[in-house]
């Protein structure tokens, strides 16, 4: 089957991704462009005997290399064997978008232009003469409303038509420039596309006759009285303007504009700030409360149904105890445990994507920029940092919205210090056992995390990234109500990625951790295991922090999977025999499945109800559970050593999912360096707090 | 005068973009703030100003705004 490679390109916020989602459906794949953390989406669709391979290029305003985004787009267009260019335009801003289109036409490749958001443009009295536009440019044009799927059915047909008929665009600049290009072709003895010719004249591409090129360039500069860069820029803007004048009619300007009304409040220096805090509060409240019942249900389903079911199944085939334990503890306990976080991650992603697609996120960047700027940081960094309080993993993925590579790096190094709910669970437990006022302790830990994050950023700015100023330039798109389908498809892509990690890297680490706790073979309880040995060996490292019990230090090993495992493994180690007493005999699969179904219904009901209650249900965690553990822990920790233990868990990035995503985003070297740094920082802080604290107690 | 000195909510025309070799200013040009364009300063938030160009909104920092001359 013949493959057609299509480059999908357009300005930011023109609905490119929505269009691709619609056309590609489940074929869509998300990855990264090699070497940069710019997201790469692509899909291959079989259609009318062709394999249409669509690659979504980053949203850019121009092909001049200003940041990673433009670099990636230009490189792809220049170096890859592209058959068709699919250019998406926001019809409301036809002329502005056409500056990029003009640069695309210079490639002289079959081009399909999608006039998107046509409905809103029409409402603003804008009309485009499509047949005339097709005629003067020799391209195929369609009007579309990607959000609603209107007009997209024809996109693939037109891609194939322009490809089969080799319909290549026409673009004409000032005669003087055209003459110079002809002259250049004659000198080099080869046919050039306009893009190549301009690049040669601008000196971006070298030839074997640089003298002649220089002569042509100087002639042009003399004739126009400006630098060639300026001439070309003016020509492109001029061409965009000329085409717009020919084909676009604007009838009436509509006065009523929802964006204006919303921005009066949302972008107000003070009211906007208040509303931002309210919106963020709601995002977290909804994310936690809506997902909590599902997480509880998943947890119950795994421990109450899947796990006993596997036990029954394995026992029936006569599997040995170690194999049964492996499946229930390593597979269900490790991977299953991480999978229970899927509802939280999916809900959070849903809400964040809602904000992103609605056009609100750039406003946050503008509002927060004044505070961030004082710290030498950039307003757009606020978005991923806020997400960090929900879950560090999607937060680090969200750093992709930041354009500047340096800022992206710095913010990735800050996110792991933002306290996530996993840490909150441990804090809630220890703080309520050891302190009269747990809320103050927890707030203090949140603040400590933020401060460490800021110090890290300050340190990076002083050393590695010295002396660079970052400017702020961002478009504030009009507000739009995103469709459910569009949001869900993005949520699914990311959830799939998370599940993939759970099945691979997280699975591998669970096996190792489980092995450490259960080997060498034949041990009676975990105090004889490798984990205990390691725990005892590393006690000297943690002794200066007041953590003297080997079980506490050993609990930090499994906690590397996810912090809250620290609690459950403390529990297993202090009460190794208690677990074995759980009765499994009365397990009836059919009945249990029915029960699970019923509790899922309750979970759905609870999820929707809790969203509408005022308090954050997720903050009530760990009250009744672990009652027995409380009493035991009290004998082995002092308030100070508990504080020290919490600080260690707060600062040290003991979360395999976070480390995995860091490796993916900033590379193995920096991710591991960061891990070491976070451990050292955690140790020093815990040491200081513990020893200074001792002076007062 | 430059954009920074412009009164809010009053239309003006861009006459010149200085330092056009600065990549950020080139990006801003591609975003629509270029010579001959009618603009309106909508508001100032912190170090940024929000500018309207033909129904679109752009937020740029004041350092960049200083380089854009209007009439």
Describe what this molecule looks like in 3D.
The complex is a heterodimer of chains A (697) and B (71). Chain A is built from 30 helices and ten strands. Chain A has 697 residues and is α/β, with parallel strands linked by helices. Chain A folds into three domains: 2-164, 3-Layer(aba) Sandwich (Rossmann fold); 176-229, no CATH class; 259-697, no CATH class. In chain A, strands 2-3-4-1-5-6-8 form a seven-stranded mixed β-sheet, with helices on both faces. The longest helix of chain A has 46 residues, at 271-316. The radius of gyration of chain A is 30 Å and the shape is elongated. Chain B has 71 residues and is α+β, with helices and mostly antiparallel strands. Chain B has a single domain (3-70), classed as Ferrous iron transport protein A (FeoA) (SH3 type barrels).
How do you describe this structure in short?
The complex is a heterodimer of chains A (697) and B (71). Chain A is built from 30 helices and 10 strands.
**Number of structural domains of chain B:** 1
What best-fitting shape of chain B do the alpha-carbon axes yield?
globular
Class of secondary structure makeup of chain A: alpha/beta
Low-confidence stretches of chain B: none
Query: What is the end-to-end distance of chain B?
Result: 7 Å
Order of helices and strands of chain B: EHEEEHE
Largest sheet features of chain A:
7 strands, mixed
Beta strand % of chain B: 35-45%
What's the number of structural domains of chain A? 3
Mean pLDDT of chain B: 86
Structural class of chain B: alpha+beta
- Corresponding CATH superfamily of chain B: Ferrous iron transport protein A (FeoA)
User: Class of chain B in CATH?
Assistant: Mainly Beta
Largest interface: A-B, 40 and 30 residues
Total of DSSP H or I helical runs spanning 4+ residues of chain A: 30
Compute the number of strand runs of chain A.
10
Radius of gyration of chain B: 10 Å
Strand order of the largest sheet of chain B: 4-3-2-1-5
């Amino acid at each position: 089957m013949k493959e057609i490679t299509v480059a999908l390109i357009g300005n930011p916020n023109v609905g490119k991704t929505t269009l691709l989602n619609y056309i590609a459906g489940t074929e869509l794949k998300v990855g990264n462009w090699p070497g940069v953390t710019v997201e790469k989406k692509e899909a291959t669709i079989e259609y009318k005997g062709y394999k249409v391979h669509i690659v979504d290029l980053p949203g850019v305003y121009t092909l001049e290399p200003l940041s990673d985004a433009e670099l990636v787009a230009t490189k792809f267009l220049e170096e890859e064997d592209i058959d068709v260019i699919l250019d998406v335009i926001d019809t409301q801003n036809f002329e502005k978008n056409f500056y990029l289109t003009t640069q695309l036409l210079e490639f002289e490749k079959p081009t399909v232009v999608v006039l998107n958001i046509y409905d809103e443009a029409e409402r603003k009295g804008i009309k485009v003469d499509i047949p005339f536009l097709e005629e003067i440019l020799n391209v195929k044009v369609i009007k579309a409303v990607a959000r609603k799927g209107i007009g997209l059915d024809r996109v693939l047909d037109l891609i194939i038509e322009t490809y089969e008929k080799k319909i290549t665009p026409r673009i004409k600049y000032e005669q003087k420039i055209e003459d110079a290009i002809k002259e250049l072709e004659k000198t080099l003895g080869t046919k050039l596309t306009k893009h190549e010719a301009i690049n040669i004249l601008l000196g971006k591409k070298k030839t074997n006759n640089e003298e002649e090129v220089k002569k042509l360039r100087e002639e042009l500069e003399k004739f126009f009285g400006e630098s060639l860069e300026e001439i070309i820029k003016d020509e492109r803007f001029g061409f965009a303007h000329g085409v717009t004048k020919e084909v676009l009619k604007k009838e009436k300007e509509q006065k009523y504009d929802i964006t204006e009304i919303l921005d009066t409040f949302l972008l107000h220096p003070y009211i906007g700030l208040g509303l931002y805090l309210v919106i963020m509060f709601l995002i977290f409240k909804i994310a936690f409360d809506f997902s909590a019942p599902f997480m509880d249900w998943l947890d119950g389903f795994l421990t109450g149904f899947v796990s006993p079911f596997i036990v029954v199944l394995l026992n029936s085939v006569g599997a040995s105890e170690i194999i049964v334990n492996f499946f229930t503890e390593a597979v269900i306990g490790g991977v299953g445990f991480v999978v229970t976080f899927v509802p939280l991650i999916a809900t959070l992603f849903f809400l964040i994507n809602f904000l992103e697609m609605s056009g609100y996120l750039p406003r946050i960047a503008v509002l927060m920029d004044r505070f961030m700027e004082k710290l030498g940081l950039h307003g757009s960094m606020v978005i991923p940092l806020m997400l960090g309080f929900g879950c560090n993993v999607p937060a680090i993925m969200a750093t992709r919205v930041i354009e500047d590579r340096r800022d992206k790096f710095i913010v990735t190094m800050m996110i792991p210090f933002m306290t996530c709910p996993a840490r909150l669970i441990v804090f809630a437990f220890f703080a309520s056992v050891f302190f009269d006022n747990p809320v103050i302790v927890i707030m203090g830990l949140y603040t400590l995390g933020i401060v460490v994050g800021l110090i890290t950023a300050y340190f990076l700015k002083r050393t590695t990234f010295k002396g660079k100023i970052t400017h702020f330039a961002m478009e504030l798109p009009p507000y739009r109500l995103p469709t459910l389908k569009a949001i869900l498809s993005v949520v699914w892509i990311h959830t799939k990625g998370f599940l993939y990690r759970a099945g691979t890297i997280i699975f591998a680490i669970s096996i190792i951790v489980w092995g450490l706790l259960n080997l060498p073979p034949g041990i009676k309880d975990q105090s004889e295991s490798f984990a205990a040995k390691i725990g005892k060996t590393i006690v000297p490292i943690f002794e200066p922090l007041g953590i003297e019990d080997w079980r506490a230090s050993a609990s930090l090993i499994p906690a590397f999977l996810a912090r809250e495992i620290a609690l459950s493994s403390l529990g297993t180690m202090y009460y190794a025999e208690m677990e074995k007493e759980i009765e499994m005999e009365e397990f009836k699969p059919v009945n249990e499945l029915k029960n699970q179904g019923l509790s899922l219904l309750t979970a759905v009901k609870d999820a929707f109800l809790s969203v509408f209650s005022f308090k954050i249900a997720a903050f009530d965690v760990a009250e009744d559970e672990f009652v027995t553990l409380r009493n035991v822990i009290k004998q082995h920790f002092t308030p100070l050593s508990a504080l020290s233990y919490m600080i260690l868990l707060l600062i040290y990035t003991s979360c395999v999912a976070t480390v995995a995503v860091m490796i993916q985003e900033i590379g193995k070297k920096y991710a591991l360096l960061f891990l070491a740094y976070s451990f050292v920082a955690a140790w020093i802080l815990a040491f200081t707090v513990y020893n200074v604290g001792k002076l007062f107690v | 005068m430059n954009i920074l000195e412009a009164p809010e909510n009053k239309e003006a025309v861009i006459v010149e973009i200085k330092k056009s070799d600065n990549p950020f200013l080139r990006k801003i040009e591609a975003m629509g703030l270029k010579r001959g364009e009618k603009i309106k300063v909508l508001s100032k938030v912190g170090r940024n100003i929000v500018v309207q160009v033909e129904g679109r909104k752009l937020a740029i920092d004041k350092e960049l705004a200083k380089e854009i001359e209007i009439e």
